[in-house]
Design brief:
By secondary structure, this protein is of the alpha/beta class. It is built from 20 helices and 20 strands. It is 35% helix and 17% strand. Helix 4 packs across helix 9.
Length: 518
């Protein structure tokens, strides 16, 4: 007996989509090429520790109804709030400052460290917070004209004019309209357009400026036991509803019959048929590499993806087990005490160079080189969550150090490169002496590692590149409406609206769009 639906890819969006379909009564089979589910939201065994594949901070996921609708707390998912939401350090030696969920506490942090930026931050929040609220609201439904316009109307149009204006600007222009200090501007740019692989001077990146505002609308949290607690809980929800999950099942083809999808072919040569197939994988891989004998109506779509630019990965992550906790030289204990921060190692620390240095780093990236001072996301998840500690005499805390603008095609190649070890040394230069002596062991995931271990072509993490306006207009409907010209073939995942990160809205929205047509 054939299933009613096949979902390809058990990252968190694929899992969420499968859970909604199964709970709606569609017999669903979820196929995953790896030996376990979760994709880049996973927590895995490495170095004798449990380490997150990507950064463990979850913000936008908690603004969706997914946790409640899939009853994830019953399946073991629990969050620890991260407060302050982030700590920010610059290479220029200026004082570290923190952003809190509460605007007033953030303003107090700036008053103590960068007093000249307080008024600008107030103006920024007034402008950016309505946009952030609108973006998060729009993301929680399939972006039809009716749903988007109803969200706009419910907010009396608040933020729309600013959103339109910022969408035509560079993020550098937006930030410089509020702030003068790179120490205050650059953490947002590091966690926004730089994560997308773009220069702060790239036109159309202005909406990336809502990053700080999102933290005032949503609360940053970490799942107990690591980021992988989310896919683990969703997997339990899928299985509890009667769904089937098959790991080590790599798809090599999506087959068609007439104008409709027929099913999938696996690497072992077996065939699985279903009237619905949802790909939660890279769209180019889906349409160019896998799709067999598509109907004529899909010809333009396949041609468009065949000729689309092929992107390469640019993010790496170093994990280490450390016997002693780092101490940031730019953190003033008096300021931390005044702000009520018990431990500055709880939040992720964003380490940023100057605006022009980030633009230069982008240029170096295009030539296979890495900046002398990389952008870092540094955190120690075991400080907030003791369950992440490594027990025993050879154990300690877990350090996560993400480095941006680290090219897939590194000049000289990754195997013999000293780059990852150099990142540890650069990071240590921001700390009190002695940290490197306490690094017991470490490993690095490069873009090549992500390609080899997570089936990400060229190590690139796909991400929806549009805006809410793009979604409203329905451009590239396979990304904004989740459907394709092949009847029964749908998309979900990070490449579709609303985009990357541990969000889950794409998986939920795709399932809802499918269910609305069945």
């Amino acid at each position: 007996m054939h299933p009613g639906a096949i979902v390809i890819g058990a990252g968190h969006n694929g899992l969420i989509c499968a859970a909604y379909l199964q709970r709606a009564g569609i017999d669903t089979v979820l196929l995953e090429a790896r030996k376990s589910v979760g994709g880049c939201a996973s927590t895995v065994d490495a170095l004798g520790a449990r380490v997150n594949i990507c950064n463990c901070d979850h913000t936008v996921f908690r603004t969706t109804p997914v946790m409640d609708e899939l009853d994830l707390a019953r399946h073991g998912l629990a969050y620890l709030d991260v407060e302050p939401a982030q700590l920010h350090i610059s290479y220029d030696g200026s004082p570290a400052w923190a952003i809190f969920h509460d605007v007033e506490r953030t303003l107090e942090s700036l008053r103590l460290t960068h007093p000249g930026e307080v008024d600008g931050y107030r103006r920024y929040v007034r402008a950016a917070k309505p946009i952030a609220e609108l973006v998060l609201a729009v993301a929680n439904d399939p972006p039809t004209s009716r749903s988007v316009l109803s969200k706009v109307a419910a907010r009396h149009g608040a933020g729309v004019a600013t959103m339109l204006r910022w969408s035509r600007m560079t993020v550098a222009e937006v930030m410089r309209s509020f702030f003068t200090s790179d120490a205050v501007m650059m953490p947002l740019i590091t966690t926004g357009p730089a994560v997308w692989g773009l220069s702060p001077y790239t036109p159309g990146t202005g909406l990336g400026a809502i990053g700080y505002a999102i933290k005032h609308v949503a609360t940053v949290g970490r799942p107990v036991g690591g980021s992988g607690a989310v896919p683990s809980a969703v997997l339990a929800s899928v299985l509890a509803a009667g769904g089937t999950v098959r790991c080590s099942s790599r798809v090599t083809a999506i087959t068609c019959e007439g104008d409709a999808v027929r099913g999938v072919e696996l690497a072992d040569g077996s065939l699985l048929e279903a009237p619905l197939v949802v790909s939660a994988c890279d769209p180019r891989e889906t349409f160019v590499s896998w799709l067999r004998q598509p109907p004529a109506a899909a010809g333009d779509l396949v041609d468009r993806w065949r000729t689309a630019p092929v992107h390469e990965g640019y993010e790496s992550k170093l994990d280490a087990v450390v016997s002693a906790l780092p101490r940031y030289r730019q953190v003033d204990p008096t300021v931390m005490a005044a702000l009520g921060i018990d431990d500055p190692l709880v939040p992720t620390c964003i380490v940023s160079p100057s605006m022009d240095d980030v633009a230069r780093a982008h240029g170096l990236l295009l030539h296979g080189r890495i900046a002398e001072r990389p952008m870092f996301f540094a955190n120690l998840p075991s400080v907030l969550d003791p369950s992440m500690m490594v027990p025993g005499p050879d154990g300690g805390h877990v350090l996560s150090l993400e480095a941006l603008h680290t090219p897939y095609r590194l000049a000289g190649g990754w195997p013999d490169s000293r780059e990852p070890e150099r990142w540890l040394e650069v990071f240590a230069s921001l700390l009190e002496p002695g940290f490197l002596d306490g690094v017991r062991r470490w490993r690095v995931m490069t873009p090549v590692s992500y390609e080899d271990e997570f089936f990400m072509p060229r190590g690139y993490a796909t991400s929806f590149a549009g805006t809410p306006l793009t979604a409203l207009l329905g451009k590239q409907p396979e990304l904004t409406r989740y459907r394709t010209p092949v009847r029964g073939l749908w998309l979900t995942g990070a490449a579709t609206f609303p985009g990357a990160g541990v969000w889950g809205a794409s998986g939920r929205n795709a399932a809802r769009a499918i269910l609305a047509t069945t």
